[in-house]
Amino acid sequence: MKKSKIYFILSALMITALLLTGCGGGGDEKKQAEGEKAATGGDTIKIGFLGAKTGGHAAYGVETLKGIKMAVEDINTAGGLLGKKIEIVEEDHGSKVSEGTTVTQKLITRDKVVAIIGDPTTGITKAAAPIAQQNKVVLLSAGAVGPGVVEIGDYIYRDVLLNSVGAPAVTKYLNEKLGWKKVVVVTSMNNDFSVGLTDLFKEALIENKMEIVGEQSIQDGDQNFAAQVTAIKDKNADGIIFTGYYTEGALFMKEVRKQGLKSVLVGGDGLMSDVFLKMGAEAVEGSMFFCGFAVDETKSSDKTKKFIEAYKAGNNGVQPDYFSVQGYDAVMLIADAIKAANSDDPEKFRVELAKTKNWEGVSGTITFDESREPIKSPVYLLEVKEGKLAVKDTIEVK
Amino acid sequence: MLSQQILNGITLGATYALIALGYTMVYGIIQLINFAHGEIYMVGAFVGVFMITVFQQGLVVSLAAAMLACVIMGVTIERFAYRPLRRSTRLAPLISAIGLSIFLQTLMTKIKGPQPIPFPHVMEDALYKLGPIEISKVQIIILVVASLLMAGLHFIVKYVKIGKAMRAASEDYDTSALMGINVNRVISFTFAIGSSLAAAGGVLVGLYFNSVSPFMGVTAGLKAFCAAVLGGIGSIPGAMLGGLFIGVAETLGIAGGFDTYKDAIAFTLLIIVLLFRPTGLLGRPIQKKV
User: Fold this and answer.
1) What residues contact B193, with CB distance under 8 A and at least 6 apart?
2) CA B29, CA B25: separation in Å to the nearest integer?
């Protein structure tokens, strides 16, 4: 009897503690939100950064922020926007979805930003987007590639290379430039990214009248691919389309070489990682994948070259990746829309943003189609060459 | 094609068998499912990687070093995590084993990070044609090493004194103690042998799959446990047979397009076999003495 009483008190205490932490800070935020929705005045235009500086996705957030800061500096030194300076409000959600929504709320209600750039991941973007949409603030993600993002509402945008643009472009390239006719498709069944990309590749393969001579499935986390590779061995394919991530990609190719198969692998930017190169070593030599941006000294435009130089100067000679580039482009896209609308009211400049067509950015040309999805050109096709990534070609999209 | 897949399956099964032997031997003597056994296998693989990368040793030395390191680890674990609990309820050492398993995984994650790391390049692989099938050098090494180790184990258990003591202890723990067998030594020895086999399995799997990770022991351990039960827990030939059986079944399952159910295959097989033969394929029925 006594014992159960103690348990009761303990659990009651724990529940209260949970409730308290759950609601923490909620009260005064509401107060702030009340009674204000006045037009954004002042002498700065505030843009919020939503991303991680710590935690699992810190690398994406930090890189995106670098690009954003460079863009803001470029705009402010050139005289600002509509006579005002741009100010970046930085927050860190520590790679946590729950924190991501809190940060979004804070950026909108307390800092009164007109636009938010972020999050670099699809998951947190999808959690934050409804809040931005509700409060009529533009949210432009510089990294979310998954499905179901811009569908959330007409204030939601992104400036990434979509798989639905990349996969058809690469398939066409494989067919026309490399003469591939027969391929094997390998999908990681417990990876949404892979399953989605496989569907897109298959559609494109049919369109290009290429033949799928074999299909194999794997799982993220698998280490043994002997059975799958044996099954595709006698298919005589021109290459392997692999839609999964880097670890499995590298191990798969190791097995392919071990069984004496010469084919190379083609995939999406899920393969973009040092791990792919290190783990795959000579087995991934010649493997290709597409992504939205890469440093290409020969073909890049003057604008891109200038960005690369500036980035390298500020980062000890390290080359920029696509997160920083997309972060830079995100700010510029919003700035150009504000300029065109001659207003920093999100309700007005989002209309201009939707009209963006053949817009020249650092990462390429961006057009928003009728459903506000970005169509980016060119698609960068990277190839592993002597253990390093090299740009094999840039594929123009219509 | 089918024969090629069966060869793949046997290679995989041989590594399962090496791990399964540790489960079955320990169970045979102290009726404990050593859930930390999969982690010993994982540590063995890491020691192998360490020897190759840091000390620039070849495969044979690295394999021996990994086995030795795990012998020490296995005996230490038994001494400090299981022996103090030997006379307590059967659940206590089991919980201790699970705790140890989590501890070792976390420790290795702390040291090496959660990402799988590539197994270092230690030799050139080659492919040999054998009629309709192709066999790689790595596969030959795995099959040869596993067979040698299993033959060695068989020899020890059958013909060496300590092996006889092991069999006696597994027959009747208390009586063999009364007959003057140092049971503590026998148990330490069992852990030593089981751990060394698991370490060998770890290095071979690392070599075969080209990667090692702090969590590699989880599924491998579970599958090997299945193999041990399938073959009849407590039975040494049963563990070997069970390992091969599960390896082949899993590979054929993947080849047949059931990759998504790959891990379920071992457990489904286990359930089916246990329904018809509750003692496993080669297990002896336990006679209750009244």
Assistant:
1) B22, B25, B153, B156
2) 7
The closest alpha carbon to B190, from B45, B71, B67, belongs to B71
SS3 B232: coil
Q: Is A224 on the interface with B (CB under 8 A)?
A: yes
Residues 244-263 on A with a CB inside 8 Å of B are 247, 250-251, 254, 258-260
Q: Where in chain A is the domain with CATH 3.40.50.2300?
A: 44-160+302-363, 164-291+381-395
Q: Is 3.40.50.2300 the CATH number for A164-291+381-395? A: yes
What is the CATH superfamily name and number for domain A44-160+302-363?
Response regulator (3.40.50.2300)
CA-to-CA dists, residue B100 to A288, A314, B32, angstroms: 43, 47, 14
Q: Could you give the 3-state DSSP secondary structure of residue A185?
A: strand
| Cis check: omega of the bond before A238, within 30 degrees of 0 | no
- What SS3 class is residue A140? strand
> Are the beta carbons of B209 and A279 separated by less than 8 Å?
no
Which of A251, A258, A284 should be substituted to probe chain B, the one whose Cβ sees the most B Cβ atoms within 10 Å?
A258
Length of chain B: 290
Measure the CA–CA gap between A200 and A241, rounded to whole angstroms: 11
Q: What is the pLDDT of residues B223-269, one digit of tens each?
A: 999 999 999 888 889 999 999 999 999 999 988 888 888 888 888 88
- Find the angle CA(B280)-CA(B285)-CA(B287) to the nearest 5 degrees: 160
DSSP symbols for A231-247: HHHTT--SEEEE-S-HH
Low-confidence ranges of chain A (pLDDT < 50): 1, 22-40
pTM to 2 decimal places: 0.76
- Hey, are the CB atoms on A275 and B11 less than 8 Å from each other? no
| Mean pLDDT score across all residues of chain B | 90
CB contact under 8 A, B127 and A259: yes
**Shortest CA distance from A252: residue in chain B:** B209
Question: Which residue in A223, A224, A275 is closest to B115 by CB distance?
Answer: A275
Structure confidence by residue, pLDDT tens digits, A3-47: 566 666 666 666 555 555 544 444 444 444 443 444 445 689 999
Contact residues, chain A, for B121 at CB < 8 Å = 281
A16/A187 Cα distance (integer angstroms): 46
Best of A184, A230, A251 to mutate (most B CBs within 10 Å, chain B): A230
Beta bridge partners of A138: A115
pLDDT for position A14: 61
Token couple for B131: 């009629």
Nearest-by-Cβ selection for A279 from B11, B211, B260: B211
Q: Sort out which chain A residues have CB atoms less than 8 A from B136's CB and list them.
A: 258-259
- Using one digit for the tens of pLDDT, what is the confidence trace for A82-135? 999 999 999 899 888 889 999 999 999 999 999 999 899 888 999 999 999 999
Nearest to A396, CA basis, from A200, A179, A173: A173
Cα separation values, A1 from A5, A11, A12, A31, Å:
6, 16, 17, 45
pLDDT at A274: 82
Is this prediction's ipTM beyond 0.95? Answer: no
The answer to whether the CB of B192 falls within 8 A of the CB of B79 is: no
Q: Tell me: pLDDT of B92 over 70.
A: yes
Contacts of B210 in chain A (CB under 8 A): 251, 254, 279
> Confidence band (pLDDT; 50, 70, 90) for B15?
very high
Higher per-residue pLDDT: B48 or A147: B48
Q: What is the DSSP letter of A160?
A: S
